[in-house]
Amino acid sequence: xxxxxxxxxxxxxxxxxxxxxxxxxxxxxxxxxxxxxxxxxxxxxxxxxxxxxxxxxxxxxxxxxxxxxxxxxxxxxxxxxxxxxxxxxxxxxxxxxxxxxxxxxxxxxxxxxxxxxxxxxxxxxxxxxxxxxxxxxxxxxxxxxxxxxxxxxxxxxxxxxxxxxxxxxxxxxxxxxxxxxxxxxxxxxxxxxxxxxxxxxxxxxxxxxxxxxxxxxxxxxxxxxxxxxxxxxxxxxxxxxxxxxxxxxxxxxxxxxxxxxx
Amino acid sequence: xxxxxxxxxxxxxxxxxxxxxxxxxxxxxxxxxxxxxxxxxxxxxxxxxxxxxxxxxxxxxxxxxxxxxxxxxxxxxxxxxxxxxxxxxxxxxxxxxxxxxxxxxxxxxxxxxxxxxxxxxxxxxxxxxxxxxxxxxxxxxxxxxxxxxxxxxxxxxxxxxxxxxxxxxxxxxxxxxxxxxxxxxxxxxxxxxxxxxxxxxxxxxxxxxxxxxxxxxxxxxxxxxxxxxxxxxxxxxxxxxxxxxxxxxxxxxxxxxxxxxxxxxxxxxxxxxxxxxxxxxxxxxxxxxxxxxxxxxxxxxxxxxxxxxxxxxxxxxxxxxxxxxxxx
Lengths: 262, 328
Hints:
Chain A: Residues 8-250 form the ABC transporter domain. The complex is a heterodimer of chains A (262) and B (328). Chain A is 32% helix and 24% strand. Chain A has nine helices and ten strands. In chain A, the strands form two sheets. In chain A, strands 6-7-8-3-9-10 form a six-stranded mixed β-sheet, sandwiched between helices. Chain A has a four-stranded antiparallel β-sheet with strand order 2-1-4-5, with helices on one face. Chain A is an alpha/beta fold. Chain A has two domains: 1-83 and 168-262, P-loop containing nucleotide triphosphate hydrolases (Rossmann fold), CATH 3.40.50; 93-162, no CATH class. In chain A, strand 4 (61-66) and strand 5 (69-71) form a beta hairpin. A two-stranded antiparallel ribbon of chain B has the order 1-2. In chain B, helix 5 packs antiparallel against helix 11 (216-242). Chain B has helices at 4-21, 23-39, 46-71, 79-97, 101-124, 130-149, 163-166, 174-192, 194-204, 206-211, 216-242, 253-263, 275-294, 299-327, and strands spanning 168-169, 172-173. Chain B has a domain at 56-274. Chain B is built from 14 helices and two strands, in the order H-H-H-H-H-H-H-E-E-H-H-H-H-H-H-H. The chains are: A alpha/beta (262), B mainly alpha (328). At the A-B interface, helix 2 of A face helix 1, helix 9 and helix 10 of B.
């Protein structure tokens, strides 16, 4: 609960799938108003860790803390209730729904009074709210009634990020948000990340793109073989350092023996 | 950039685009209607229109049910069997237990709802694909209807049994009135309610909906149960129309209602479909059938024509979507 406790912290997370140990005591620390890049080679456990932190997977051991308070996420809904919003790599939006409907999916505004209790939507309020939210975030979408599937890849990703930002109170997790995007679209999404940070929110950014990571992140945490092996302040590390840490040539973390017990 | 006026203009354009999606099928419907008016003196008569209306009522109601299922990326192959079972049960409770026709309708709806619930549970909890779950129900339902009837139709029903299928209110067939109420309510539910929004979301991207906190299982069960209840109602109207419970009713009905939904713009890939389109599709098929009979066209050509319409409707719909995509 203390003010200087990390907004989000994972301690010694273990996750097994059958005989495969995807996470072997993984740690992650995210301070308030900080963009933390989470990097690692394929199979290092980044996605699994993200899914544990967003409530999709339940860890076999370890602890998740929000502002120093231990929490358990039985489902994505639990994580969101604690202010952690996640943008997943590929299944962020429903293409057939309008932009406004996607922003409010699962959290629709209902009509006032008995009509609302009967389950009727206040579509006008959602259109207005979506337009305002997108404008505040500087996301240029021609109109919020457009089916999301008709937007460009960058616009769709911006909608997904905006959706997370609008509802998050503490942390937004972005899993490879620019993997499928072109240069200009990537720039837009990164600008959006910076704006989110400036608004006081913390961001966890999973990425493969080293220059991008060094540009936008305040800190970098490196995963290898299911655990954290290195942490850098973004200013101190070079691309070579990051690659060395990803491949196991460099480690800033204590040895296995000194890690939290499994 | 986007002032209120520009927004309003965009909004209007969007509305028009939506209208155009039903335009192809609607135009075909109007043209066919006009052609039949000229081609046959018997077409534009109160009797014939009355007949088309009540014939189409059953297919339209069940097509509405099928549309809701298809929007979730599902399919219900059991509609024909379940309609037959519901109609037969409705007839049996009137004949053997002396129920009124209205109570019998409730029994038929309950039978359909139960079958739909079973479909929904098989799909969500046993995680069977909708095609398989409802294929099984198609067989189970048909088996049950032969078991309860001994494969003989249920006859000796009172005149009142025909009220639902052949009755008239203010000059309009009662079945048509029921169909209109069902279609309006379903259309409103899909476009204005949270449940409807979730139906589209689940069909469009099930995992995204789940992670957004949409109660996916509960909703899917509700969708199949709701569809089942409409199938039960349709089965009762069909039985009432012929004043008997027919164990053979509805064989191949699933294909007719899927055709109506697809002609009306529903996508088997989920996420798309509208009740208004489905109703147009159902009437288009009905007019083809009726017109063929009036013009003395060989019955086998009807099937060919309906097939051609399905191809044309889906082709034009995809063409329109591609154009919309390149424009935005």
